[in-house]
Amino acid sequence: MRELFRISDQIETFRPGKLLCIGRNYAKHAKELGNEVPEDPMVFLKPASALIESGEEIVIPRASSDVHHEVELVCLIGKAGKDIPESKALEHIAGFAVGLDMTARDIQSKAKAKGHPWSVAKGYDTFAPLGEFAPPHALRHIQNTHIELQVNGETRQSGNTNEMIFSVAYLIHWCSSIFTLMPGDLLFTGTPEGVSQVHPGDQLVAKIEGLPSLTVGVRAA
Ligand code: MN
């Protein structure tokens, strides 16, 4: 479990707060799961106890036989704010990393059918692998950056942040109208299409242009 974040060689550290995750923020991914493209961002929460770092392993829980990878751009909030205007939103970002929103798809599908929350499907220990943070300027064009995920050397997800339905700035603005954003909070901004199942022994490499890559293994519980 991750307890502190540091941005590259900076001295300041952040303790992880709430993990705000956006669902269906890339139109093609919404469609591949048979979902409507949303009119407003769809947000859910993941517990900070799910965080792991590069070099660690995702654990497939006994309760699931269909755990999926979702590669995502992750923002670290560095400055508190409530009702943040979209024009000021990027000033609240302390750093960027590549992350994975691991999802027990079978558990999620059952929850969706019953109208239940996704907390279990999204919240198992190890379900939030996160790469090292880089300062905001490492991403030259936040909304035009390549994002990809390889499994055992084979590309499974390949997209661009220009395909997001809601921009990073808009998501911060929108989330801050509901939740006060605090230093250490993380925003997972959604995944491009190509999500698929992982298996014990797989090696996942997540990459976003300009950021440190993330490598994690997979094992059974
Ligand atoms: Mn996701």
Description of the molecule:
The protein starts with a strand and ends with a strand. The protein has a 5-stranded mixed beta sheet. It has helices at about 25-30, 105-115, 120-125, 170-175; strands at about 5, 15, 20-25, 40-45, 50-55, 55-60, 65-70, 70-75, 95-100, 105, 130, 145-150, 155-160, 185-190, 205-210, 215-220. The mean pLDDT is about 95. A hairpin with a 5-residue loop joins β15 (about 205-210) and β16 (about 215-220). The protein has a single domain (about 5-220), classed as Fumarylacetoacetate hydrolase, domain 2 (Alpha-Beta Complex). The chain is an alpha+beta fold. The protein is built from 4 helices and 16 strands. The longest helix has 10 residues, at about 105-115. Manganese (II) ion binds near residues 70, 72 and 191. The site of manganese (II) ion (MN) has 7 residues, from β3.
Summarize the structure.
The chain has helices at residues 27-32, 105-114, 119-123, 168-176, and strands at 5-6, 13-14, 19-23, 42-46, 51-53, 57-60, 67-68, 71-77, 93-100, 103-104, 128-130, 146-151, 154-160, 186-188, 203-208, 214-220. By secondary structure, it is of the alpha+beta class.
Our estimate of the beta-strand percent is 25-35%
Ranges where pLDDT stays below 50 over 5 or more residues in a row are none
Report the end-to-end length measured between terminal Cα atoms. Answer: 16 Å
> What is the CATH class?
Alpha Beta
Name the CATH homologous superfamily.
Answer: Fumarylacetoacetase-like, C-terminal domain
Major β-sheet strand ordering: 4-3-14-8-9
* Residue share in helix: 10-25%
* Radius of gyration (Å): 16 Å
Separate helix tally: 4
- Largest sheet: number of strands, sense, barrel closure: 5 strands, mixed
